[in-house]
Write a structure and sequence with these properties.
Isoleucyl-tRNA Synthetase, Domain 1; 2 domains; four-stranded antiparallel beta sheet; 8 strands; 11% strand; globular
């Protein structure tokens, strides 16, 4: 299954709105979406309207409000070749995400609880070329003889230990039920924050892989190291605040899937010549 990032869908909607309203054709990668939860009351935010202000000689908040109006009108097929509703059921965009203009013209994007649950399952199913699922634990697909083994990634170690314990205690099945669904109803803020971070990283990895946008290997690894540290920090907050045992099954599964996704993406962000030791 091809991974179509929800963030890419939002970029397309914004790009189409800007072209329709102002005649400016922006490439999707020029529309930056920053993970902003829980610092701000939005999952992601964009400053594209503020950036367009000098070019259009208009107030940035007015630009942002016009973008939003046109985003709502633009729901079906775009010239970028991506269906903006991302659904065979042709659902309304409002059932997935909402966009709001705030402050000087920031665009704040929030996902619905139901859509957050769908994103969780989307990230769980995401396949990254260098990573494979072995007995419920993500591992690098190819091992080379001079690979450097390190044991100092505490966040990764906790992920492996928790997943192995969950399988051993039959808390999480090796294969999810076919019709398994989850929503982020009454989720702890740190759960949402962890999902938001994971989605932003998956979006970055798949975009870089498909478009080869990062050609400087040193610069790429520096960026991935920064993303890895950020993800590890959020995960450790989650680890301190969210229980797996003593909660109902739906909450436990949701949290375990978050852990599996985090472990996968921490591994994907690691340098190609590094293999994290598998921890009990």
């Amino acid at each position: 299954m091809q991974f179509i990032s929800p963030l890419q869908i939002i970029r397309v909607a914004i790009a189409e709105a800007i072209y329709a309203g102002f005649g400016i054709r922006l490439k999707c990668h020029e529309i930056v979406l920053e993970a902003s939860f829980p610092k701000y009351s939005a999952h992601y935010t964009s400053s594209v309207a503020i950036a367009l202000c000098p070019r259009l000689a208009q107030d940035s908040l007015t630009i942002a409000e016009e973008i939003i109006k046109l985003c709502i009108q633009t729901r079906l097929k775009s010239s970028y070749g991506i269906s903006l509703d991302n659904s065979s059921e042709n659902r309304d965009i409002d059932s997935q995400w909402q966009i709001q203009a705030v402050g000087k013209g920031w665009l704040n994007i929030n996902f619905t609880e139901q859509y957050l649950g769908e994103i969780l399952l989307l990230l769980e199913k995401l396949r990254i070329a260098a990573i494979e699922d072995t007995n419920g634990i993500w591992q690098k697909r190819f091992l080379i003889s001079d690979q450097y083994i390190i044991e100092d990634n505490y966040a990764y170690a906790r992920c492996c230990a928790l997943i192995r314990l969950a399988y051993r205690e039959h808390l999480l099945p090796l294969v999810l039920e076919k019709n398994f669904k989850t929503i982020f109803t009454e989720a702890e803020p740190v759960e949402t924050s962890l999902l938001v971070q994971n989605l932003a990283i998956a979006d970055y990895l798949m975009s870089a892989q498909e478009n080869c946008t990062e050609r400087n290997h040193k610069k790429t690894q520096e960026k991935q190291d920064k993303l890895s540290r950020s993800l590890a920090d959020v995960f450790l907050q989650f680890y301190d605040q969210c229980r797996i045992y003593g909660v109902n099954r739906d909450i436990a599964w949701r949290r375990l899937l978050l852990i599996r996704i985090t472990q996968k993406l921490l591994l994907a962000l690691a340098p190609t010549n590094i293999n994290y030791t598998m921890y009990l």
